[in-house]
């Protein structure tokens, strides 16, 4: 068990009727606000009007940058950083899903430097400061509302790269489950697959950590298993949407990590799929995750699978450990592909086997992935091949 630092200074307004505090929270940072959002869902659900009216009450000066793409592009980040510099923006307000929030984080950092923001991702440039960021989350999935990371695509180089840095943490996040009522069953499912994987990436390790954290992760996973089908079937079920929303934040805000130091495995693999094929992040993770678990299962790792199978899927603890482990992967696959109705192979989502060697190389661009099992490009190729 390693020592660790817990420091998550994000102020969260959770629940309905909290937008009345938005203007005052923004005004703490200044008058000039850059409002950034995606392709228009916030206008369809009336959230855009609510937000503008709240900002007007505080007399804030609002500049807008709409059109942030899913798998957000570096061009949008550049445009946002430029806009902040030109208009001397005091605070960024990001309204949307993980893509908008991620793009806003790097606009905030890009506004404070003279170099191209892409250098943050090639790790040529440090991230030492950023403009303050306030978020309004509209899709439960990535946890970007409460973490200090983000992932940006560069179509020119077919790269999708992430970066973590404390200055990127939002100052305040507004989490109103009712604004997620309009999220489609497909995006709800992809969001669930994403948050489930955020937990599995931390839960499945050979590093020993606190029992309390394992129980907490099992509770989060059971929450996703219980409430995602309800949210898909009844989009305006408040209890389901609220449980998923708070789970999204706690799956990745650093709390569950404790002192673990291992690498995440599925995320670097998935980012190569999104980089090359622009597919939805959660869908790519759903395809990869059960194959990764199969690939890493052996006598040295089986105990964790048993714990997962017994505590999360209620599999009979008296069965042989390997049987429990395989059954747990089968039940996870059933949830992802039958209950959530997500596509289960590369072929179904149009990923060509010809691209596997290059994507595997790129997934390991920073070296061997030291997760549950160390993964070299050959291992990643083998896992990708299982996905065909
Ligand atoms: O663009 P709009 O019109 O808003 O539509 C979006 C988009 O088409 C729509 N949507 C969002 N809220 C909605 C809604 N539609 C109806 N009603 C609403 N209330 O959903 C679509 C997908 O949105 P997006 O923001 O792309 O989804 P998500 O939140 O899943 O974000 C995915 C991105 O986050 C990155 C992913 O790689 C991907 O680029 N990640 C960020 C992480 C982080 N910051 O820590 C961690 C994750 O692992 C992940 O890598
Ligand atoms: Zn993710």
Can you tell me the CATH architecture of the largest domain? Up-down Bundle
CATH class term of the largest domain: Mainly Alpha
The geometry reads as globular
Q: What fold name stands as the CATH topology of the largest domain?
A: Dehydroquinate synthase-like, alpha domain
Bound molecules: 5,6-dihydroxy-NADP, zinc ion
State the low-pLDDT regions, or none. none
Could you state the order of secondary-structure elements as H and E?
EHEHHEHEHHEEEEHHHHHHHHHEEH
Main sheet: strands, sense, barrel: 6 strands, parallel
User: Which percent bin holds the helix content?
Assistant: 40-55%
Strand order of the largest sheet: 1-8-5-4-2-3
How many DSSP H or I helices?
A: 16
Structural class of the secondary elements?
A: alpha/beta
CA distance, first residue to last residue: 38 Å
- Provide the CATH superfamily of the largest domain: Dehydroquinate synthase-like - alpha domain
| Overall pLDDT level | 98
Q: Give the strand content.
A: 5-15%
Q: In angstroms, what is the radius of gyration?
A: 20 Å
Q: How many discrete structural domains?
A: 2
Overall strand count: 10
Can you describe this structure?
There is one protein chain. By secondary structure, this protein is an alpha/beta fold. The protein folds into two domains: 11-179, 3-Layer(aba) Sandwich (Rossmann fold), CATH 3.40.50; 183-386, Dehydroquinate synthase-like, alpha domain (Up-down Bundle). The protein is 48% helix and 12% strand. The protein has 16 helices and ten strands. The strands form three sheets. The chain has a six-stranded parallel sheet with strand order 1-8-5-4-2-3, sandwiched between helices. A hairpin with a 3-residue loop joins strand 9 (369-370) and strand 10 (374-375). Helix 7 (185-203) packs parallel to helix 11 (281-296), helix 11 crosses helix 16 and helix 12 crosses helix 13 (321-339). The longest helix has 23 residues, at 211-233. The structure holds 5,6-dihydroxy-NADP and zinc ion (ZN).
């Amino acid at each position: 068990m390693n020592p660790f630092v817990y420091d998550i200074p994000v102020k969260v307004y959770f629940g309905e009727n909290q937008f009345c505090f938005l203007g005052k929270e923004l005004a703490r940072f200044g008058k000039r606000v850059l409002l950034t959002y995606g392709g228009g869902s916030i206008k369809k659900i009336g959230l855009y009007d609510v937000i503008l009216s709240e900002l007007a009450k505080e007399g804030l000066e609002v500049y807008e940058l709409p059109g942030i793409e899913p798998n957000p592009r570096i061009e949008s980040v550049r445009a946002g950083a430029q806009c902040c510099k030109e208009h001397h923006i005091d605070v960024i307000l990001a309204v949307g899903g993980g893509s908008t929030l991620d793009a806003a984080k790097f606009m905030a950092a890009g506004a404070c430097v003279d170099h191209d923001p892409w250098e943050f991702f090639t790790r040529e440039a440090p991230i030492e400061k950023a403009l303050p960021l306030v978020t309004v989350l509209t899709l439960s999935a990535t946890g970007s509302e409460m973490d200090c990371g983000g992932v940006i695509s560069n179509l020119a180089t077919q790269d999708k790269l992430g970066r973590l840095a404390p200055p990127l943490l939002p100052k305040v996040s507004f989490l109103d489950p009712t604004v997620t009522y309009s999220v489609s069953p497909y995006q709800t499912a992809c969001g669930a697959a994403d948050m489930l994987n955020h937990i599995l990436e931390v839960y499945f390790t050979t590093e020993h950590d606190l029992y309390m954290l394992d129980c907490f992760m099992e509770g989060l996973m059971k929450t996703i298993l219980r409430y995602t089908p309800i949210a898909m079937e009844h989009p305006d079920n408040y209890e389901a949407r609220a449980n998923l929303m708070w789970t999204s934040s706690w799956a990745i805000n650093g709390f569950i990590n404790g002192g673990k130091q291992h690498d995440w495995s599925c995320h670097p693999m998935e980012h190569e799929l999104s980089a090359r094929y622009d597919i939805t992040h959660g869908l790519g993770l759903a395809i990869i995750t059960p194959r990764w678990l199969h690939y890493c299962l052996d006598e040295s790792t089986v105990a964790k699978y048993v714990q997962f199978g017994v505590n999360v899927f209620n599999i009979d603890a008296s069965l042989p450990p390997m049987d429990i482990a395989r059954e747990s992967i089968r039940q996870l696959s059933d949830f992802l592909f039958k209950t959530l109705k997500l596509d289960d192979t590369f072929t179904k989502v149009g990923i060509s086997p010809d691209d596997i060697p290059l994507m595997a190389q790129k997934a390991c661009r920073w070296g061997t992935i030291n997760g549950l099992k160390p993964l070299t490009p050959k291992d990643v190729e083998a896992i990708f091949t299982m996905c065909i």
